[in-house]
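Quick note —
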Amino acid sequence: MRKKLSVLLLFIFFTINITSCYSNNNTWVKNTIQKIYASQNNDGGYKESFFVQNRELSSTYYFLEICSLMDFPLDNDFKEKTQNWILSTQNEDGYFGDEQQYGRQIQNTYFAVLSLKKIGYKFDEKQIQEITSHFEQLKKTNKLYYELSPEKEPFLNYFVLESAKALKSEEKFKDVNTAFKNMCTQSTSIDPLTKLFFLNYFKESIEIDEELHQQIINEMKQNKYSFIQELWFLSFLEDDNLNKNIKSTLLKYFNLDGGFSAMIENSSSDRETFYALQTLKRLNYKMPVLRKNMIKNFVFAHMNAQGGFNKPFTSPSTPQATYKSLNILTKLGYEVNNRDNVETYLKRNLQALMQSSDYHPLVMLNTLKALQLLNKDENLISTVKELDQKLYKEFINNTYQNLEEKLSHSFELVLYDISYYVDILLMLGENIPDNLKQKLYNNCEEIIEKYMKSNTIASIVYIYYSVRLLDNINVISRYNTQIDSLAKKILNQELNREDKGDLLICYYAMMIQRYNHTG
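Predicted structure written out below.
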């Protein structure tokens, strides 16, 4: 039974023929699609690692706040899991998170307390005592919170006061409130934007004279905060003309992935999206339904099945990630977001690769495969030729030259690249010359013979690439029967291990049988 189940799982995983195994309402499918959509950058391409799930207290706080700002409901199961996860991060000393740095203890505890409060958790007296006692232990003799300078780290005091408010323990920190208010009103060292925020926090009157106006401009030029956070600070000034400009500026930083970022070409972040939406809400911006749905997808794409939210991804687009994402979307029957942008991204990469005589073959192969998936109703060769006829001919010649040049090296070391070059030529309708086929056959047979003798799990990788290459040039190895026996032996061995078998090795073994015309 275990073997049958393992084979089924392998089939699902490696063919990604998920449509027949899952309905479109399946939670796994929905989460996968949301993650893929959220992994798209503004250039149209996709990022790597959209399945990574590292929960963070900060991301969980920001996303819960965004859900509240946008009225996105969370089901009770997720709330319970998130609650349990956050509570599991509390240390014996009372603070939350695994970072022992003074400021991080305060900040992560703030994120945890406010997140728990947001999902309706009721703190008992013991928990309140543990948290507030730890805060009291961290307090400096001047009743403030800081590591190096109270003027440079004012938000640590804000985090403590807001946590105490959430725990209904304000009385214990009245001395902090007084000391912090005095510092904010009297200090000349706090930067102007931060000071304006805290003057508003303490309901102090604010007058923007010429000197303060210039200080604000100078402060923004220093880029101490993200641009979106600076706009959030300024929104507290309650100036109609200024707020109109803030609103229009913020909307320029709304990204295709459904979030916001300070750099238009960058992928969005939880923090920037939180500040942007908080500012827009303060300015009474009415969010269009389409934009609201994009934000919702961005938020839920980072939801962790075990509770909490993951940190948004910031990696650049790659043809490899773009191909994988398009492949999964196609297999699941979903539409590609911003199709024209994706095509532009892929063609731009394709042209750059074609202009390089020593392009990376795997990058080129993934670019072509992604284009083929995207334009399934169009001829790939025509698409590539349309970019530049002369460049296309040079590119084909370079590919043959690169292949011949690689064959002069140790075949074992360049096997992967050679396999990719052959794939590229075949995708573009090239007929591999017989003399080149013979060289490929001879070298593949040597590799197969060598690794058949070694008879180890690691040998399956080299045999896989060799058999796959032979299949591409329509040749079957003379070791056909032995290869099939080894593949079956290794597959059976991995599937029946007491501990967890190696899925990648199983994949190679299964695919060897397919390419070897025996499976």
